[in-house]
Amino acid sequence: MRVLILPGSNALSHLAKGLAVREALRARGAEVVFAASAARSPFLTRLDVPHRVLPDLQEADGGSAPTFAWFRHPDRFLRVVQAETALLAEVKPDLVLGIFRFTAPTSAALAGIPCDTLACGCMLPAFRGVLGFAPGEPGHEAQRPFLDTFYSHCGARASRALAALGRPAVEDVRSLLLGRRTYLWDTPDFQPLAPAPGLEHVGPLAWDRWPGTEAAGPALDRLGSPLAVLSLGTAIGPDAAPGRILDRLLALGFQVALAGGGFPSGRAPRPGVTAFGFAPMGDLLARADLLVCHGGQQTVFEALAAGVPTAVFPFHPEQAQNGLCLERLGAGARLVPPTVFWGSSRVYADALAALGDAELDARLMGLPRRGPLPLPVPLARAADRVAERLGA
């Protein structure tokens, strides 16, 4: 069996999920072809992973989450589909797996090849809530029309390209993430969904072969206690926000490990701070008392599996939703109050700036504690459920 894996390139975590699936399929004797954008090609080359290079909608603006720019010009959608169908004609796979890639199901349908997809529950039409808000929270009703307009407007733009390809229109752009079967990399208790045909939870996909982590041993040995891990992914937001979080963690007496994606320009690590490039998150979380992260689901589920309480400082609504899900499980919290997103991550930095030091400290210290005693029941329960549902 030959499988073509097409991950969306807006987050390295999507590539990591694809690489986890690639390893699992190859172990079962399948032939796997992997594709990624030109921007992600050096990362795969560094890992010695053979791959093909394809354009990606994300290249419209480099956004770490879907934006209007991805769908504004139907010709962009057409160019990506044309490149994908050309690769399908060359590779002739038995199955396509699209990972948070809006064009993959369309290209596969045009080629007459089955397409399954991998996505998170909160970015599918079956999710009926408002990203980042519990019902009744201030801002809930203000955020809904912005998100609904985004889904419908981008769906209408994509539908112009679909019409040119002889494909049916979509009212909600999230419909383009659905495949013959749509696998969910989160868990039912983390993000409850309305029942929908074709949805199947596989749980978090574990992959930890980030380049350079094998040399992290000496730095790990230098870490002190109590330890906070500050991990903001590969899309660092405004400099002042993560810098202030670091300042407060140090003031609270934490040793700090800066993990993944670098750190804002002009802020060199200080005493009590150890910086990692691609961090060995499993090793870090095994030692950590606290994680502060951007809310990416791969990082969140690694923390849940390790029983580490997590505070989320998001850059976009999907990440804010993950913070809300952690709160519901009793395993973490949103670091800033529910905040209406109008298209710029600056709103979250502004919300953080509006918090005084005492309130920010209280949010950090109010998380469930991990220490020498048994884990608090909600953390232990969440860790067990994630362990039961590890994917791939």
Automatic annotation (TrEMBL):
GO terms for molecular function: hexosyltransferase activity. Residues 273-332 form the Glycosyl transferase family 28 C-terminal domain. SUPFAM superfamilies: UDP-Glycosyltransferase/glycogen phosphorylase. InterPro entries: Glyco_trans_28_C. This is PGL/p-HBAD biosynthesis glycosyltransferase.
